[in-house]
Design a protein that fits this description.
Helix content is 39%, strand content 9%. It is α/β, with parallel strands linked by helices. Helix 2 crosses helix 3, helix 3 runs parallel beside helix 4 and helix 4 packs across helix 6.
């Protein structure tokens, strides 16, 4: 690999922002911190104004790697140690200068900082900690910071960094230990889960401390997240959802992100993808994940060992409803909130509105439409005052044929979007006007 130490900051930014684009685990919700005199930035109103590329990657933060040098040789990673690519690294001062100058020009409202492993986990984590410490204490940056915790690093370093960051994440990478052993031989499941458990315990302990001492420093106030690669190993959707469910329950994660495998390396251990990255599969996993987090579903309800993969033509909620027609139709004027949540076409907001509105009298289909219910899906599964909107057969094939008519366009929009291309920071931001250390 070619290590280039004397590159300009702009060239480093090109290399290290491009190297960071495959990491999707960067959201900014969960913190409500106002700005104050003498500081720069805030996280009021969920912090960051999100902006997404066509493939769903968040680009609203300054999203960079501290370095793309790495001691590991993960077969799916563009930054693997055996790849012959230009290597470089920022200094803590350069990251601070970039963040502040991008922020002042209204390009970004926060920082997402990840990294390859330079020399050792402890060495890399120390550099990340020093960067955040300088940004918070010397530059008085009060905005949003999401940083990656380095598996295998000293717990003391992770803890000190956690008091400076808003969100931390440790990527699980692959859903099973066997997959990790096969494609990322330098990593282990225990090294990944150990800091994840440390952060979870730290967040819980800090929550009780803040209840007693309001001015106590907050530890990772926006929680932690992780990422799994979809399609690099043969695990099915059921296995991935079971892993995600366990992570939510055991580690109190805010989000599990799913990243469609992009074949950036040639390796016999990696799958051939003649149809391109599995974006539709990634989409279905996100839909199912939403159902688990906000709709009360469990992974075992959505899939099973006998039916281990999601239907590509129907969203997971419609697919579940069609397999449980014995529970329908639901009477909207009597059903409880959690029953309404399971009706296709009804969301959290519309279910709450139904509960509140029907106190004033029975609802009809016109009222449901005004409330926000998507009737083109819901009409097969609900009644109002004992009547359906149209004569409908409660029969799987009949309902499925009508629902698939609506879903086909969505499938087409995802699967025929053209060449898979990651967005570049330099496609949207004119950086040459910045000046860092004598000129960028």
């Amino acid at each position: 690999m070619l290590i280039q130490e004397e590159l300009s900051v702009q060239k480093k930014l090109e290399i290290l922002s491009d190297a960071a684009k495959y990491d999707v685990a960067c959201t900014s919700s969960g913190v409500d911190r106002k700005g104050k005199a003498g500081t720069l930035g805030n996280t009021e109103n969920a912090g960051i104004c999100h902006s997404f590329s066509a493939d769903g990657r968040c680009i609203s933060l300054l999203k960079i790697l501290f370095t793309n040098q790495c001691i590991y040789d993960c077969k799916y990673c563009i930054n693997r140690s055996s790849n012959d690519v230009p290597r470089t690294s920022f200094t803590p001062e350069e990251v601070c200068q970039l963040t502040i100058q991008f922020y002042r020009r209204n390009y970004i409202e926060g920082l997402f900082l990840s990294s390859g492993i330079l020399h050792s986990p402890d060495y890399t984590m120390e550099l990340i900690y020093q960067t955040l410490k300088k940004l918070r204490e010397e530059y008085h940056f009060h905005g949003y910071i999401h940083v990656k915790a380095i598996p295998g690093a000293d717990p003391v370093l992770i803890e000190k960094t956690g008091f400076l960051a808003d969100r931390m994440s440790i990527n699980l990478e692959l859903p099973t230990a066997d997959g990790l052993k096969k494609l990322a031989p330098g990593k282990s499941r225990s090294k990944i889960l150990t800091p994840m458990k440390q952060i979870q315990r730290g967040i819980t302990a800090n929550r009780f401390e803040l209840m007693e001492y309001k001015k106590a420093p907050a530890f990772v106030p926006a929680g932690q997240s992780t990422q799994m690669i979809v399609g690099a190993t043969p695990e099915n959707d059921f296995q991935m959802m079971m892993v995600a469910e366990a992570l939510y329950q055991k580690y109190d994660l805010k989000r599990v992100f799913y990243s469609a495998f992009v074949p950036v390396n040639q390796d016999i251990s990696l799958p051939a993808l003649p149809g391109g990255p599995p974006l539709l599969r990634e989409h279905r996993l996100y839909q199912a994940d939403w159902l688990m987090r906000f709709y009360g579903f469990q992974a075992g309800e959505l899939l099973s060992e006998d039916r281990p993969n999601f239907n590509t033509l129907l969203d997971p909620k419609c697919d579940w409803a069609l397999r449980h027609l014995e529970l329908f139709p639901v009477e909207v004027n009597r059903a409880d909130y959690f029953t309404l949540l399971r009706v296709p076409g009804m969301g959290v907001k519309s279910a709450k509105r139904i509960i509140a509105t029907r106190k004033n009298g029975p609802l009809d289909f016109d009222a449901l439409k005004r409330i926000g219910v998507v009737l083109k899906r819901a009409i097969y599964f609900i009644t109002c005052s004992g009547k359906m909107m149209y004569p409908v057969k409660i029969e799987e094939d009949y309902i499925c044929s009508h629902l698939i008519g609506d879903e086909k366009k969505k499938v087409w929009d995802i699967s025929s979007s053209g060449t898979y291309q990651q967005i570049s920071l330099f496609d949207t931001i004119n950086v040459p006007t910045l000046t860092v250390a004598g000129g960028l």
